[in-house]
Amino acid sequence: MAFFITGVSGFIGFHLATALLARGEEVIGIDIHTSSPFLSKERLNLLKQHRGFMYQAIDVCDQSALKALFAQYAHIHSIIHLAAQAGVRRSREEPALFARSNFEGLVSLLEASLTLKQINHIVYASSSAVYGRTKEFPFKETNPLGEPSSFYAVTKHSNELTAAYYKRAYNLPLTALRFFTVYGAWGRPDMAYFKFAKAISDKKPITLWEGQNLSRDFTFISDVVAGVLSLLDRKTRSFVPDAVNIGSGKPESVLKLIKELEKNLNMKADIEICPRPLEDLEQTWASIELIKKLTGWSPKTSINEGIAAFSKWFRVYKKLENQKN
Ligand SMILES: NC(=O)c1ccc[n+]([C@@H]2O[C@H](COP(=O)([O-])OP(=O)(O)OC[C@H]3O[C@@H](n4cnc5c(N)ncnc54)[C@H](O)[C@@H]3O)[C@@H](O)[C@H]2O)c1
Predict the structure, then answer these.
(1) 167, 174 Cβ separation under 8 angstroms
(2) How remote is the C-alpha of 217 from its chain's centroid?
């Protein structure tokens, strides 16, 4: 039995694959290095050192390539679909690219997955962004989804509608993973915590959005990995949830995140306050009662511990980057 991961050399895909390989599983992964190619290739090099890992450079929108891969690896029993264009502000600049990777990518994957005979569970990345402009806190899976604040949110919302159709039409065991601001080592350079760390260490100003409640449900990567695995490891298919929040359940102010980075990098931030762009929500806050009830999982890492671990890795990454340039 094998696990199939799309977006395997991305931030979350890399950590999930590493955890699965460490426990002796077979992992088949695809990616085409569309985001942060330097980090993406470094992550892939690490994955390739594991026996049990197989990689192909396949675009998830290429349905015939996926079908050929699934014919070769018919023993795939779990699919983790993470390949996508991520980032709320960039989705305004490149909506067609986001629509293709995020919307067409899921349809292509689901069509190809119909050829697999032993599928236990298909989980795919959704996002806290689907809750949109809402005043209902914390965000519960049963809440009606709010007005999308970005085109990125539109693509993730439409993924959930697509999945609802495939679940009904073909009885596919599909679950949306609604991730909340995932951070950690090998993370994404376009995300705020990473940009802040880079600006602080380069002695450049950092931009903080206006807003008294500017906060995020920051979730440390190892907690996210444990949460996803807890869902995949459930033996019973009697109830396959449509959507599950994977968050810390404890929003922290963005200012606190900056303070933790300052402490760990031992440098002061130069903060510029600017109006919040239309795409960014003021606050995110996950209810994690559903996943706790289903699997017993709960997050273990505080923001202090998580940022300390990220900062330790960030120092090494900076050296690697400097050597490259
Ligand atoms: N990191 C977060 O905080 C967060 C929060 C909410 C949702 N998500 C979602 O989780 C998933 C993984 O996020 P991440 O942070 O690891 O992002 P990431 O950008 O690091 O990883 C995504 C990977 O998908 C690959 N990819 C993109 N288009 C592809 C295509 N057409 N074919 C094959 N590969 C393709 C990219 O090259 C990249 O390696 C994404 O779907 C993202 O939208 C992430």
Answers:
(1) yes
(2) 13
* Protein residues with CB under 6 Å of any ligand 1 atom: 6-7, 9-13, 30-35, 40, 59-61, 82-86, 101, 105, 125, 127, 179, 181-182, 188
Model confidence over 138-176: pLDDT tens digits?
A: 999 999 998 999 999 999 999 999 999 999 999 999 999
Q: How are beta strands 252-253 and 215-216 bridged, if at all?
A: antiparallel
Q: Burial level of 187, CB count in 10 A (0-12/13-18/19+)?
A: buried
Ramachandran assignment for 59, one of left (phi > 0), alpha (psi -120 to 50 degrees), beta (any other): beta
Quick one: average pLDDT of 217-233?
98
Q: How far is CA 185 from CA 9, 10, 238, 314, in A?
A: 13, 12, 36, 7
Residue tagged active-site, from 152, 183, 193, 317: 152
Q: What's the whole-number average pLDDT of the chain? A: 96
Q: Which of 35, 97, 104, 186 to mutate to test the pocket of ligand 1 (most atoms within 8 A of CB)?
A: 35
Q: Which of 255, 244, 257 is nearest to 287 (CA)?
A: 244
Whether the per-residue pLDDT at 35 is higher than 80: the answer is: yes
Bridge partners of 26, per DSSP, are 2
152 in catalytic set: yes
- For the chain, which domains are there? 2-183+219-247+285-300 (3.40.50.720)
